[in-house]
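Module 6 notes. Inverse folding takes a fixed backbone as the condition and produces residue identities as the prediction. Think of it as a translation problem where the source language is geometry and the target language is the twenty amino acids. Below is one complete input and output pair. Work through it position by position during the lab.
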């Protein structure tokens, strides 16, 4: 039985990840700001879910995390899944600020704390849900794509750092394409994947200790194409 924390488990991908881990007998700590959704998840798996309701952008973020680790009696795996991705077509400072505060600053605060925690205890696994959007700049949501690029590149650095420790500390950068959740809105969506399928593939990739994974698998192709499209073509798209 693993002790798992899903940061951002009230809805969408995080909620489904919590269900899979709890349903397979693990002890899962779930977080988010919406208390009632955390409780309803706990009701589904009363012996396998513990909750801690908090806003990761708040000043008490790490104290909440420490309390949750205490409730679980330890930690083997943490998935940083909280995220927002609002469109900022008319460039809007408030949207850009909110996006980077959550997807960069809070991500970083938790990643640094948990990485050092795992190195101290000699083992552990840290994962984040970045995005295929991390691969290129996006004119509709520039802060979102940049923040996900930050997560992705940062985790490549942590992956190398973890290997150099020689310890069984693992890092996984999860890059979903479109997954059918409240966040995936807009008209230009394609290959939208069901959330349960995406979550199952994420759990499998974490189990195999992959350092980067595209979800669902077919998005590997989009990732490769996106990476290699010449700038002059990409800048005329959309
Ligand atoms: N859906 C997609 O197509 C897609 C594609 C690529 C990547 N992703 C990434 O996958 C992750 C999950 O997204 P989703 O699609 O499942 O969307 P979602 O259903 O909106 O889930 C977002 C989660 O983040 C939490 N969250 C938001 N603000 C927070 C805050 N200030 N403090 C703590 N938790 C906060 C939410 O909980 P509360 O609101 O209760 O706080 C919720 O549990 C995100 O990081 C997203 O960028 C999604």
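Target side of the pair, the amino acids:
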């Amino acid at each position: 039985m693993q002790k798992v924390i899903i940061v951002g488990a009230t809805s969408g991908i995080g909620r489904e990840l919590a269900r899979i881990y709890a349903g397979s007998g693990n002890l899962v700590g779930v977080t988010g700001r919406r208390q009632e959704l955390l409780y309803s998840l706990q009701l589904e798996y009363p012996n396998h879910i513990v909750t801690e309701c908090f806003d990761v952008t708040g000043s008490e973020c790490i104290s909440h995390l420490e309390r949750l680790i205490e409730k679980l009696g330890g930690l083997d795996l943490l998935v940083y899944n909280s995220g927002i991705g609002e469109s900022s077509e008319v460039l809007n400072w408030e949207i850009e600020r909110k996006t980077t505060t959550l997807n960069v600053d809070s991500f970083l605060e938790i990643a640094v704390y948990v990485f050092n925690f795992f190195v101290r205890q000699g083992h552990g696994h840290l994962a984040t849900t970045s995005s295929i959007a991390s691969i290129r700049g996006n004119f509709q949501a520039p802060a979102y794509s940049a923040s996900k690029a930050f997560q992705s590149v940062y985790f490549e650095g942590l992956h190398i750092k973890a290997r150099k420790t020689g310890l069984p500390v693992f890092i996984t950068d999860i890059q979903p394409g479109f997954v059918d959740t409240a966040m995936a809105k807009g008209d230009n969506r394609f290959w939208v994947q069901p959330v349960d399928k995406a979550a199952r593939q994420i759990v499998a990739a974490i189990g195999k200790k992959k350092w980067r994974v595209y979800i669902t698998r077919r998005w590997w192709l989009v990732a490769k194409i996106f990476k290699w499209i010449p700038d002059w073509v990409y800048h005329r798209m959309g």
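Reference fact for the lab report: The domain at 3-234 is CATH 3.40.50.720 (Rossmann fold).
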